[in-house]
Inverse folding.
């Protein structure tokens, strides 16, 4: 409660600062403050909703685990523990992704205020590349979760042979996906370097180098 109250007070102060800048006619500072405060308010609201959902989900998981433990359902208990761990891991990954995206947006706005054309274009391209990489990792994690869930289901049914085959298939799928992601990442890095060189030439008005 205290952290959310402080965040709201800080947002209110920043909005007042934005209004003061608007009164002085600082258009660039106003736009930057509006974007920054919109992000703060949005993140605060999403954090509150996510915290509420996690609490509700945690209560439901604990109740389910207690019921299964009382009934002596060992397999179901282990599956519930695994599910709870996976939910916590996904929440941590989502939080890191949101923080990286926020930092990228702030960098773009800061460079835009300075009129840094080359830096703005490069930062925009970098943010796009980061988003594409995050989407690729999310797809990989989704595939791994589906395969692990299938393995847990077979283990609960006592299908030992099916479990071993599923684990091997899951490992192979993840390994191949990581290899493809590594190749794509190197290709994106080369493309990013080429575009960065073209942007630098464009900004220095090196028409001959740009055409070449």
């Amino acid at each position: 409660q205290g952290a959310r109250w402080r965040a709201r007070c800080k947002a209110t102060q920043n909005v007042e600062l934005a209004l003061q800048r608007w009164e002085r006619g600082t258009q660039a500072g106003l736009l930057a403050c509006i974007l920054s405060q919109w992000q703060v308010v949005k993140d605060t609201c999403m954090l509150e909703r996510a915290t509420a959902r996690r609490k509700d989900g945690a209560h439901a998981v604990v109740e389910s685990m207690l019921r299964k433990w009382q009934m002596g359902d060992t397999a179901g208990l282990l599956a519930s523990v695994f599910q709870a761990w996976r939910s916590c891991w996904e929440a941590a990954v989502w939080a890191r992704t949101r923080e990286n995206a926020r930092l990228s947006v702030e960098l773009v706005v800061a460079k835009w205020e300075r009129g840094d054309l080359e830096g703005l274009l490069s930062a925009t391209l970098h943010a796009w590349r980061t988003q594409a990489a995050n989407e690729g990792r999310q797809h990989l994690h989704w595939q791994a979760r589906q395969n692990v869930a299938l393995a847990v289901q077979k283990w609960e049914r006592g299908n030992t042979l099916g479990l071993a085959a599923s684990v091997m298939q899951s490992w192979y799928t993840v390994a191949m996906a990581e290899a493809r992601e590594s190749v794509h990442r190197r290709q994106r890095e080369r493309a990013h370097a080429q575009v960065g060189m073209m942007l630098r030439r464009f900004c220095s008005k090196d028409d001959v180098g740009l055409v070449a």
